[in-house]
Amino acid sequence: MRSRDLAQIALFAAIMVVLGFFPLIQLPGAFAPFTSQTLGVILAGSILGAKRGALAILLFDVLVFVGLPVLPGGRGGLSVIMGPTGGFVIAYPIGALVIGLLTERLWRHYNLPIAIAINFLGGALVLYAIGIPWMATAAHISLGKAITTSVAFLPGDVVKVVVGSLAAVAVRKAYPLIPARA
Ligand SMILES: O=C(O)CCCC[C@@H]1SC[C@@H]2NC(=O)N[C@@H]21
């Protein structure tokens, strides 16, 4: 891995940290906060691709694991990971990986609708698939309740997907960082 790759990984991990400065917004009745950090997951996967994107978010997760206050509201540490929102944090690098793999595969045909579909899959559905069952277990609530209380995140997540997709398509045009596959 070249030093440019390492710099890009560090940059996108830093973007995740900056996105964590947004104040913690707790939606009524929800067991997790609204977070702008899923936008960072989308940007990392769709702009850096699978390997560098997932590594950037993994680096961010390491910062959380060792206890740095990089989650919204200045939270971090194993107590967060073991709590109701830990599954989402663990899912962040997996979401970036899925986005990166699909973005690379469809790179030649990449456009806004494709970006939105990929980013919704990796930046919302993958996070829900891991985060919501984890939330049900950690918060001792039924899976049904975890799902219904999480529906409130959908509008905000769709906005983040569209914003991230517009950025990804613009970066692809101006300064593509993902090499086209043969
Ligand atoms: O900071 C944390 O402890 C993790 C928060 C996870 C919040 C999830 S991610 C998917 C969904 N969209 C949001 O804005 N919030 C939830």
From TrEMBL:
One of its GO terms (molecular function) is biotin transmembrane transporter activity. GO terms for cellular component: plasma membrane. InterPro entries: BioY (IPR003784). It is a multi-pass membrane protein. It comes from the Bacteria. It is found in: Cell membrane. Its main location: membrane. The keyword Chloroplast does not apply. The chain crosses the membrane at residues 7-25, 31-48, 55-74, 80-102, 114-135, 147-171. Keywords: Cell membrane, Membrane, Transmembrane, Transmembrane helix, Transport. Belongs to the BioY family. This is Biotin transporter. It comes from Nocardia huaxiensis.
